[in-house]
Each structure stands twice: as C-alpha cells, then as structure tokens.
C-alpha cells in the first residue's frame, strides 16, 4: 500500500512567513542603524552615504527586496505549458477546449500560427499584441497594444497565400481569460505552426521548452506518430521534466486505441524518455458541444458531453501534477531566499553577542578577515583572472555555438530547397527560415544566460575561497548557504542577450522574374524541343504509315517537352531565389551577431567586476566598523554591556525562530516534491 503523500505547506502559509520575515528584517535594520548613530556619529554620515559607504542594514535591505520579489513571483507565477503539434492535428482546438472558449484561437485549415501566443489568467478577457518597430533599440521591450479577442488571427497568424506572418512587427501575443483552469496556476503557450514539426518550427518549439514546466504534445487518432514527430520528441528529451500527450479526434477515428498502443511502442524505441508519459484521448467537438449546451442551460447534456470529451482527466492532471508542482517549486524558492536573508543578520547578531561577551581573540579574527579582503583587491587577484578568462571562454563558446547553429540552419534550408516543389518553396521557405532564425536567437539567449550564471558563480566562488580562509570570526555576510559577497548580483536576468526583431533584421525574399511572353519568348521555349518532337512524329509515321497521327504525336510531344522545360526553368528560378535569400540572411547574421555577443559578455563582465569591487569595499568597511565596535565594547561599563546583550539575545531569538520555521517549511516542500505515486 502506497503511503499518503505529506501535505505541502500552503501558499498562504509560506507567503505569510515571507511577509513576517521581511517585516522583522526591516525593523531590525532600522534599529541597528539607530543604535549605530547613537554609538558612532560617523557611522551613517550623509557624506559616507553619498560616497556609497554601507550601513549595517544595507545587506538586509537587499535580502528583503529579493524576498519580496520572490514572494511576488510565487503569487503571480504560473506553470508554463508549451503546446506543440503538427499542422492540422487539433493543437489550437485543444487550447480552445482547455480554456472553454471555442473560437479563441483560429482553427481554419489554412491558418497557421506565426508567433507565440501566451494564454494566462486574468480577471477580464483581453488580448495584447507586443509590437517591435524598426527604430526600436534592441534592449527596449516590445510595445503593448490592446487588440480584440476576435482579432488574434490578424496579429498572430501566417498569411496562407504568402507563408509570411500577416504582421511582421508582432513579437508575441498575450491573452488573459477568467478561466478556472488558468487560475489554478497554468499558462499555455501556443508555438508557431509553420508547416509542421520540421525545420524552423521544431527549432523554435525546442528553444521555447528551455523555460517550460511541461510539454503538451498534440497528435490525432488518424495515424501513428510521424518521423518528424518522433525526431522532435527525441530532441526534446532533456528540455522539459514533464510530457503529456493529447490524442484528438477520437470521435472521427474509431481505431484510436490501436493508434495509442502503436505510438507507445514507437516512443519506447525512438524516444524512451517519453514512453511512460500519460495519454489523454479527447474530442474537441464534444467539448465544444458541451460548452454550447451549458450556455443553453442544458446542464445534464453538458455534463454528459464533457465526460465524453475526455477533458476532465486531462485538466485534473494538469492541475494536480504540473500546476501544483510548479507552485511548490516557487514556494521553495521563497523559503530559500528567506533563509539566505535571515542568515546575514543572524550571523551579525551572533558576532555582536560574542563582542558584548568580550571574548578574547575576537579582534584578531576580525583583523585576519580584513587581511583576506585585502588579498582580493589587487589587479592580480584570482577572481579577476577568473573573470577575464571566463568571459573570454564564454565568448568563444557562444561564437562556436552560433556558428554551429547557422550550419544547422543552412543544412535544413538547403534540404528544403533541394526537395520542395516550386510553389511550396516560394510560399513556405521565407517563413520557415525566419522561424529557424528566431530559434537561433532564443537558443543563443538561453546559452548566454546559462554561461553567464556559471561565470558569475565561478567568480563569486573565487572571492568566497579567500574570504572563508579568514572567516573564523563568522563574518556577518556569510549567508545560510555559505555564500560570500557578490552572491546575489542578479546580473544574468537583466535582459535577453540578443532580441529577435521580426521583420526588421532579416531581408525580404526577392522573387526574380523572367520575361517569357511574346513571339521571342515562345520561340525560346519551343525551339529546343522542335527537333525532338519532329523525330518522335517521324518514328510514329514510320510505325503506323499514317499521315495525321505523326502530326498529332509531334504536337503532343512538343507540348509535353515545352511544359517540362518551363517547369525546370521555374524550379531553377525559385531555387535560385531561395538560395540567394538564404545567403543574404546568413550574411546578415554573421555580420551582426558575433559583435553583439562580444559586447554583451564584455558589458556583463565589467558590471560583475564593478559589483564585486563594491562588495569587497563594503565588506572591508563593515569589518572596520565591527572592529571599532568591539573596541568600544571592551571599554563599556558592565551595565551597558548587560543591556546590549539582552537586546541582542532577543534579536537572535526572533531570527532563530524564523529560521527554524523556514527550515520546517523547506522540509515540508521537499517531502511533497517526490514523484506523484498515482502517476499514470
């Protein structure tokens, strides 16, 4: 018998704890600042503050800000579900069914999504298009423009005639709906659907999975998984922790149970990571009819249709296993940040108590810590060398990854050019190439964020190594997780490395023309085939001894050969156009992107260096003040020391109580983070 899962601490309980912790830290910082002003008139002089000299409460202020920000993310954050599927599999219909709005996203057979559409909870239905214009700075966020819900297709869809997005200035579209499923903590992301899971669409969807909580993969009951679908799933193995399969059109294909079993076999062979993922057969038609019946007041019929649709088990799993797990992860982050924030003042107060107890040798410990800090300041310090070599290595890694991505773009594009029919190539190639390029942008941004985070941690660790060597005094800036100055610089999240500027960076595909009309054009097309047609007619005449038949045969052969010649010429023209467009796009990218990589990494490295310089200077000043305070305590009267010890012990008690509560919350969240025993 499976033991019951422990109940996770509620969101309200964790957020209440975070609010109480932030309030206590703020009060403690104000009290210490007031005490410092009373005992040391130079501690918070305006001139010192203007020059950037910290007070003892500054570190707490940073911790409180981070704690409040993390709590806000836990309130507003949602589990991100990236919805992926081949064209005409019912992807948009499935999203419409999940939110209970049948006409939200366009589901016409000839309409495909051209940009990301994010569907999240909102108290009132609304849609917003995020637009970028040619003159916008790369770091500027897209402009938000409200649009009607019925206008989503105009802003987010691909023009079926040209294969290009209808609006080149649209970066993405966000939709808010007062839907219970979304209010449970889910956010749906509809990925661009340009020609199915091939080429650019697959790359873009894979890149989007980097920051997703789950993949919702939509197929239908008509046939087993295709090669491109299996290839995509194989590549998506390491991108997301959770995969859910939705099989649509169960009302149209009676053999769908056999299809599901066959798909499980294919997954076990080609994408084993997803072999045990749950499958949910659904009928979007029944779900739509259930909504209509409910709107008409036919509640019994609506309930029957809803059960028939198969969406209730799917929605239950999304709530229970994905939304709840993502919420628990965000709550765990709140508790982790709170522990780090509590560690700073708690260590500070414990050190102050040691000083108030006049422990021998404490002054020597503080002086050793000061000496350790001095080792971090010369230009030859180890952390500076780590920053220089690390940023250089990161630039080289990003440049190499970018070149490899461009090679992949060229390979896929050249395969498309070599195998596509002229009409399909002319219509689909620009949009698919644009999707591939957008995927390169997103992959580069993801790689840069990971690399910068590793670099930041490496440099911080170099600082901590030196600090820890002289930290026998229990330095006040050692946090609960053992980190040192500069731990929470948070530089990586400042913005994208490179922004994909749809319609402003990439050139338009130029379609060449060939004037083959008029008498000369006709002669040019016909004359090369006349000899072959005449020979064919002569052979027919000799074989049949007929007068009329050779002429008919010659004319027919001439028409066939002329048409084939025109088709070859058209294919060559379109392939030439596509090849030239590919080369222009790749030239633009190789010209612009390497410089942007260098500028961005160098800029972040400079900021990281300045931040660490400030952190080291701040820590040195704190140690100097601590040493001065300790010397004052050595000269203080017994009554003064007793009163100060009493205040300090009360503060330590309050901070310790909150720390113990945080540890209990962290334990409860970790226990509920185990895999769900009813996984199916």
How would you describe this structure to a colleague?
With 680 residues, this protein is of the alpha/beta class. It contains 18 helices and 11 strands. The strands form 2 sheets. A 9-stranded mixed beta sheet has the order 5-4-7-3-8-1-9-10-11. A two-stranded antiparallel sheet has the order 2-6. α9 links the parallel β10 and β11 (279-281). α3 (58-76) packs antiparallel against α12 and α14 (382-419) packs antiparallel against α17 (548-635). The protein starts with 10 loop residues before the first helix and ends in an 8-residue tail after the last helix.
Order of helices and strands: HHHEHEEEEHEEHEHEHEHEHHHHHHHHH
Instruction: Estimate percent helicity.
Output: 55-70%
The largest sheet has its strands arranged as 5-4-7-3-8-1-9-10-11
Task: Note the main sheet.
Answer: 9 strands, mixed
Structural class: alpha/beta
Low-confidence stretches: 1-5, 42-59, 466-504, 674-680
Termini separation comes to: 17 Å
Strand content: 5-15%
The geometry reads as elongated
Could you tell me the mean pLDDT?
75
Instruction: Please count the beta strands (DSSP E, at least 2 residues each).
Output: 11
Provide a short characterization of the protein structure.
62% of the residues lie in helices and 8% in strands. With 680 residues, the chain is of the alpha/beta class.
Describe the SSE topology.
Blueprint: H1 11-39, H2 46-50, H3 58-76, E1 79-85, H4 91-99, E2 112-113, E3 116-121, E4 126-131, E5 143-147, H5 152-156, E6 157-158, E7 170-177, H6 180-183, E8 186-190, H7 199-208, E9 214-220, H8 227-235, E10 243-248, H9 256-270, E11 279-281, H10 284-295, H11 299-309, H12 311-356, H13 362-375, H14 382-419, H15 422-469, H16 518-544, H17 548-635, H18 638-672
Parallel strand pairs: 1-8, 1-9, 3-7, 9-10, 10-11
Antiparallel strand pairs: 2-6, 3-8, 4-5, 4-7
Helix pairs in contact: 1-3, 1-12, 1-18, 3-12, 7-15, 10-11, 12-18, 13-15, 13-17, 14-15, 14-17, 15-17, 16-17
């Amino acid at each position: 018998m499976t033991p019951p899962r422990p109940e996770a601490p509620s969101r309200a309980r964790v957020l209440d704890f975070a609010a109480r912790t932030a309030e206590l830290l703020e009060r403690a910082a104000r009290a210490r600042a007031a005490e410092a002003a009373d005992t040391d008139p130079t501690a918070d002089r305006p001139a010192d503050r203007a020059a950037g000299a910290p007070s003892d409460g500054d570190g707490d202020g940073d911790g409180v800000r981070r704690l409040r920000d993390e709590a806000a993310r836990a309130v507003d954050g949602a589990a991100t579900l990236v919805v992926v599927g081949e064209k005409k599999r019912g992807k948009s219909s499935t999203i419409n069914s999940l939110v209970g709005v049948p006409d939200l996203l366009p589901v016409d057979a000839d309409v495909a999504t051209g940009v990301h559409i994010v569907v999240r909870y909102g108290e009132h239905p609304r849609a917003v298009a995020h637009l970028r214009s040619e003159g916008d700075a790369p770091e500027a966020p897209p402009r938000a423009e409200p649009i009607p819900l019925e206008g989503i297709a105009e802003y987010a869809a691909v023009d079926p005639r040209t294969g290009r997005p209808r609006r080149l200035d649209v970066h993405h579209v966000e939709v808010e709906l007062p839907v219970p499923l979304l209010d449970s903590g889910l956010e749906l992301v509809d990925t661009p659907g340009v020609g199915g899971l091939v080429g650019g669409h697959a790359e873009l969807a894979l890149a989007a999975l980097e920051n997703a909580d789950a993949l919702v993969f939509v197929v239908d009951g008509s046939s087993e998984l295709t090669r491109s679908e299996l290839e995509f799933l194989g590549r998506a193995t390491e991108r997301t922790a959770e995969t859910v399969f939705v099989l649509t059109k169960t009302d149209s294909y009676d053999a769908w149970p056999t299809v599901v079993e066959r798909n499980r076999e294919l997954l076990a062979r080609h994408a084993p990571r997803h072999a045990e993922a749950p499958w949910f057969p659904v009928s979007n038609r029944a779900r739509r009819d259930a909504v209509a019946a409910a709107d008409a007041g036919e509640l019994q019929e609506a309930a029957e249709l809803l059960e028939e649709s198969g969406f209730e088990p799917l929605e239950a799993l999304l709530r229970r296993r994905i939304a709840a797990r993502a919420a628990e992860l965000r709550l765990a982050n709140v508790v982790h940040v709170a522990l780090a924030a509590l560690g700073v003042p708690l260590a500070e107060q414990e050190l102050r108590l040691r000083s108030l107890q006049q422990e021998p040798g404490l002054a020597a410990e503080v002086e050793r810590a000061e000496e350790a800090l001095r080792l971090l300041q010369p230009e030859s310090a180890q952390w500076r060398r780590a920053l220089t070599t690390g940023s250089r290595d990161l630039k080289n890694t990003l440049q190499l990854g970018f070149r490899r991505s461009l090679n992949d773009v060229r390979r896929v594009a050249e395969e498309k050019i070599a195998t596509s029919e002229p009409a399909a190539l002319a219509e689909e190639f620009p949009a698919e190439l644009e999707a591939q390029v957008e995927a390169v942008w997103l992959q580069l941004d993801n790689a840069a964020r990971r690399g910068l985070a590793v670099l930041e941690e490496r440099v911080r660790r170099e600082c901590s190594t030196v600090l820890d060597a002289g930290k026998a005094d229990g330095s006040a800036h050692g946090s609960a997780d053992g980190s040192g100055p500069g731990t929470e610089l948070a530089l990586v999240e400042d913005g994208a490395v490179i922004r994909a500027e749809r319609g402003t960076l990439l050139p338009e595909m130029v379609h060449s023309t060939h004037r083959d009309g008029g008498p000369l054009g006709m002669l040019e097309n016909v004359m090369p085939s006349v000899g072959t047609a005449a020979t064919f007619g002569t052979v027919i005449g000799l074989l049949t001894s007929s007068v009329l038949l050779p002429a008919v045969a010659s004319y027919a052969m001439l028409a066939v050969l002329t048409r084939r010649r025109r088709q070859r010429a058209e294919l060559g023209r379109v392939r030439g156009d596509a090849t030239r467009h590919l080369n222009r796009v790749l030239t633009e990218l190789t010209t612009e992107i390497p410089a942007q990589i260098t500028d961005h990494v160098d800029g972040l490295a400079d900021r990281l260096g300045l931040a660490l310089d400030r952190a080291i200077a701040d820590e040195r000043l704190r140690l100097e003040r601590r040493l001065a305070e300790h010397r004052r305590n050595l000269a203080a009267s017994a009554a003064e020391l007793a009163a100060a010890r009493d205040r300090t012990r009360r503060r330590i008690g309050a901070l310790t109580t909150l720390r113990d509560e945080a540890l209990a919350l962290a334990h409860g969240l970790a226990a509920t983070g185990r895999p769900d025993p009813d996984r199916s």
